[in-house]
Description:
mainly alpha; Growth Hormone, Chain: A; 21 helices
Amino acid sequence: MTMTAAESLSARLSVAFACIGHATMHILAALYLTVVLDLERAWSMSYDELIRLWTLGSLLIGLGAPLAGWLGDRWSDVRMMVAMFLITGAGSILAGLSQTPGQLLAALAVLGLGASIYHPVGMSWVVKNATNRGRTMGIMGIFGSVGIASAALIAGGLSQAYDWHMAFLVPGVASILLGLVLLVLVASGRVRDRRGDVRPQAKAARGDAVRAFLVLSVTMLCAGLIFNATQTALPKWFDEGMGELVGGSTLGIGGLVTIVYLLASSAQFVGGWLSDRMPIKRVYVVCLLIQAPALALAATAGGPLVLLLATAMVFTNGLQIPAENLLLARYTPERHRGLAYGAKFVLSFGAAPLAVQLVALAYGWTSDFSLLFATLAGLALTAWLAALLLPAESTDPRAGTPLAQAAGSD
């Protein structure tokens, strides 16, 4: 499909802001997981009590996703992205101004509601504007991983240099500024909504679409629990397993988390590259399976091995994400794609409060993370078994699947 110069510019800027938005959303959504280590001392509360304050915010990241996706489909992708930057930034600023647990819980809820916009709207936005979906989603995934990695370092660094309030205030202001820049680009016509895909795809059979969505509902729930529980537990796991190596400082712990996510940041690019060149189902099934060994080993690990296993856990969890998103796009009509991604993130990020509670309960029962990681290994095997039931694909991805027919190269 030939695009005008204005359409091409809009597509490039849309992909760029989708990548920036992915990093920003994950930075803001992950700040509290490191800040909570300072709050244990500042408010004299236990870790399991404090981590529960994120339950409502993490719940809203999932519950808000379908409405956000529906509004993106029916109203405007780009304006919903502006709202994401502004609302998420406002929630972070309110969190930084909080003086009581109740105020912090409410502020984190606002942050979670704003963050709920990104994935259903941002994913649909990218699918519409990308000429090479697998690679573009992989690059976008790197931005998300770097965002998660940066969150721990930003939170730890600002907490160490100033206090925990600044760890929320500075990123919140930055998010609002990015939202205003995007708003100016929208108002000037440089960034526009796109109603159809740059590279359209053939429609999947209705029976295959229903079957795929049922299977993906199981795999996405399991993957969401694994992702959120791992992200929640890592700072405390490092604090206990490697805290002495960094003097027990919040900055040091945040630095270790940053190292892990940076080392694993290429996972989604690798997964997207594979999905452009191999049958997507095969990529997805294999990527789900290889998560289990790292999680099982983590249940018994300690000392410096914790860093290596954490990297393996995060890498294998990210590897399957592009294939999962492409499968969802392959079986969803264009006009309902935002809503479909919203439904996905009800499952994956809607699993976040369950994951937070799982971390709190498992740690409360055992005073370590052995039970947690053993449970997550079981979830990875469950997702793998479910993925085997996806509709069959041709062994030639460029000839046999509608998505591959639409892929091509830039």
